[in-house]
Amino acid sequence: MSPTQIPMAAVDRAWLRMDTPQNSMMICGVWMLDRPVSVNRLRRTIEERFLCFDRFRQKAVDTGDRAYWQDDPLFDLDNHFHQIALPGKADKAELQKLVSDLNSTSLDFRQPLWQMHYIDNYQGGSALLIRIHHCIADGISLVRVMLSLTDKTPEPKLSKVASKRHSKPPQRSAIQRLLHRAVDNAQIATHQAKLFIQSVREEPNYPLKLASTASAVALDIIKLGMTPVEPKTGLKEPLSGRKQVAWADPLDLDEVKACAKALGGTINDALLCTVTGALQRHFAAHKEAIPDCGIRVAVPFNLRPLDQPIETLGNKFGLVLVTLPVEVLDPLMCFQQVQENMNRLKRSYQAQVTYSLLDLFGRGPDVIERRALDLLSNKASAVLTNVPGPKDALYLAGSKLTQPMCWVPQSGNIGIGMSILSYAGTVQFGITVDKAIHADPNAVMDYFRQSFEALSHAALAGRHKSIKRQPG
After folding, report:
1. What pLDDT digit, counting tens, does each position of 171-195 carry?
2. CATH top-level class of 5-159
3. What gap in Å lies between CA 90 and CA 87, rounded to an integer?
4. Which of 43, 108, 298, 453 could form a disulfide with 380, with the two C-beta atoms 3.0–4.6 Å apart?
5. Which catalytic reaction applies to this protein (predicted)?
6. Helix count (H) and strand count (E) of the chain?
7. What does the longest C-alpha to C-alpha distance in the chain come to?
8. What confidence tens digit (pLDDT) does each residue in 398-419 have?
9. Does the domain made of 233-469 have the CATH classification 3.40.50.720?
10. What does the DSSP 8-state code read for residue 152?
């Protein structure tokens, strides 16, 4: 192997091979900024804070029997960073149209798999559109990478701007790599044995707990395999590969917190219930029968320690299938059902199981991976992400970031992606829908706000009633 070729992790290779004409495996984001920025300053920021990660200067190469990262000898920022302008009124509709078009366009596999478009005339300010292939990293990592471009004040700290490119690990020969792997495996085995003996000494029934965990994992594998396919609805149609993107006006995070607290649940429970209510309204608007068993969404579950250094890219997450009880029309009962479903999933090993499956698929033949992904994608109607963002407003090249949005790709025959992102005291919600699916993305955005207002009203009204019933 050439010194410039770095083996690709099996999970990353699995995401590389998931690309289809209907679904490109891109993570797409758009940042709205309060004013135009200096293009030279923005380019300099990208060079110093984004390109310091070697992966963004490397091509992904898959020869069939192996996959690896290789430095692009012809790398040029001009091939990846473009300055454009919106036509017409340069309003939200025009920006959504542009994002939809680029979200439908695959990246060039002859080059490092990312693109940025700086839009210099959006609603009196500007915007930055970002596309990065999922094989490079998962959503949590990429959000952190993109946030490293920003500052807490309009003027950056010199120490941050002067960040250096991450050094590459020293290259080893084939014999050195083999010996190194053998030593690593021996050390890991010794360490695990010591931990096991220590655990038995401290807790005599530890082997029984270990066996119980193994049984639970095996049971989750069986449950995942036996999960029935999604009910036939208008959300599951043969895909065209053309996307429509929309985002809602942000919710106030304090209002979401108050709603969740009144219901005795988490912010995530409240937002999942809100999504459920939005889909209920979609079915009603299309006069479509609501499935009496609910519908499922695939939700990425982070398996990476949040304190892990940002330079560690790659994919480290599993997927869990969350049932949204769209058949439960009462907001409070719907919330209770969502909460029960989430609590059940938190006690399961489904995320670890799906991560292991992706690792396994990435090591096997392409045809096996595609068949397995088709099987799994038949069990969900949409992908839903919920990523925590920064609590305070940030600045990019001196311009305030007013609203960030991002969407993860949908694999197999899934044609809907929904995204929740918290930022600076707000909750952002966006959607991408394949054009073959009869769902108006902007209408769904309206349904989302209506659904939250209905849930919040019911929650606060219920809390006031309980206070009145308490003895004085």
Report:
1. 445 555 444 544 444 554 454 445 4
2. alpha beta
3. 6
4. 298
5. an acyl-CoA + a 1,2-diacyl-sn-glycerol = a triacyl-sn-glycerol + CoA
6. 13, 16
7. 79
8. 999 999 998 888 888 899 999 9
9. no
10. S
